[in-house]
Amino acid sequence: MIRINDIIEKITAYNPSVDVDIIDRAYIYSARVHEGQIRLSGEPYLSHPLEVADILAGMKLDVTSVAAGLLHDVIEDTDASPKEIKEIFGSDIYHIVSGVSKLSGLPLKGAQARQAESIRKMILAMANDIRVIMIKLADRLHNMRTLEYHSRSKRTEIAQETLDIYAPIAARLGIYWIKNELEEISFRYLQPDICAEIEQLVQKDRVERENFIDSVQQFIKRKMEENHLKCEVLGRYKNFYSIYQKMLNQNLKFEDIYDVIAFRIILDSIPQCYEALGIMHSLWKPIAKKFKDYIGFPKPNMYQSLHTTLIGFSGERVEIQIRTHEMDRVAQSGIAAHWSYKEGQHVDEKVSQAFAWIQNLVENQATVQDPDEFLENVRIDLFPDEVYVFTPQGEIKTLPKGATPVDFAYMIHTEVGNQCTGGKVNGRMVPLSHELKTGDIIEIVTTKNHHPSKDWLTFVKTVKARSKIRHWIKTQEKERSLSLGREMLEKAFRKYRSNFNTMIKSAEINKVVEHFGFKTTDDLIASVGYGKITPLQVVRKFVTKTDEDEQDSIFNRLIGRVRKKKPKTGVVVHGIDDILVRFGKCCQPVPGDLIVGYITRGYGVTVHRKNCKNALGMNPERRIDVEWNAEVAESYPVKIRVLSIDRVGLLADIAATINKEGANIVSADTQTRENKTVDSFFTIVVENTGQLKRTVAALKKVKLVQEVKRIEN
Ligand code: MN
Question: How high is the pLDDT of residue 50?
Answer without folding.
Answer: 96
